[in-house]
Amino acid sequence: MEELYLSFKPYLISIAYRMLGSLTDAEDIVHDTFIKLQGSDTPHINNVKSYLSKMVTNRCINEIKSVRKKRESYLGTWLPEPIVQGPLVDPSEKVIQDDSLSYALIILMEELSAMERAVYVLKEAFQLEHPETASMLNITEVNCRKIFSRAKKKIKDLSGENMTSYQIQEEHTARFISALSNGSIQEITDILADDVTFVADGGGKVVTAINEIVSKERVLALLHAIATKFFAGKTAHVVSVNNQKGILIVKDGKPIGVFSFVWNPNTHKIHQLFYVVNPDKLRQINIFPF
């Protein structure tokens, strides 16, 4: 059983994280799935990978339905739990390794119903064919195709999201860190789009903007407040957030915030800015002393 767990854990967590937007919940579901599997007659399971995927996917569908009700009372905007990797982060904690796992896409998954999310993830992210996906979800192949088509229409076009090179992302991110550290936010005026938006998630546990902030002027004003009033005693570091350049904020050796960005594919300016400071969503980040 341990060998099965180690073999399939990353794959199953990848499915669950995409569906739930929470690495913590994804790991819990995968762990519970293997506990349940211990009571099954595994030698008689023809395709263990498919069997486990079906168990995890169905658990996620039930979890999504339950979580939607809880989100109604969530204070402020709910954002997914970011997956942070980089020189400060323990490489053994790199649970999910996937270059296509963008933070913007995980956010957009919230626009989909539980079944749409399951079909989209299995087909788009894991390249399962419609017959296999339909069988896994106990729906017809025709219905599976319709659900996938509907999900694709709801998800905005992200085809140009990765067109900004890592070099440009790293240069802009380094400038962003310099502006935060020095309190000179005007230094990054030229790398923000005019219609840039800022969305933060403090979960009611950390003071931050509750509503979405729109326009360069308003976002700059908010960043200035963060830099001058809340940045003392903290350090900022370039990291990878869901496989794109982002920023990890650290205080006393502990992660206290994560910035991630969506870049305009034509101008390479920051089009969307996400700021997660809810401590519950930063627990998975284990950093090295520095």
TrEMBL record:
| Pfam families for the chain | Sigma70_r2, Sigma70_r4_2
A GO BP entry is: DNA-templated transcription initiation
Q: Which InterPro entries match?
A: ECF_Sigma-70_Domain (IPR052704), NTF2-like_dom_sf (IPR032710), RNA_pol_sigma-70_dom (IPR014284), RNA_pol_sigma70_r2 (IPR007627), RNA_pol_sigma70_r4_t2 (IPR013249), RNA_pol_sigma_r2 (IPR013325), RNA_pol_sigma_r3/r4-like (IPR013324), WH-like_DNA-bd_sf (IPR036388)
Cite the GO molecular-function annotations of the record: DNA binding; sigma factor activity
Query: Which NCBIfam families does the annotation name?
Result: PRK09636.1 (NF007214), sigma70-ECF (TIGR02937)
Subunit arrangement? Interacts transiently with the RNA polymerase catalytic core formed by RpoA, RpoB, RpoC and RpoZ (2 alpha, 1 beta, 1 beta' and 1 omega subunit) to form the RNA polymerase holoenzyme that can initiate transcription.
Entry protein name:
ECF RNA polymerase sigma factor SigJ
Q: Which organism is it from?
A: Aneurinibacillus soli
Q: Which gene encodes it?
A: sigJ_1
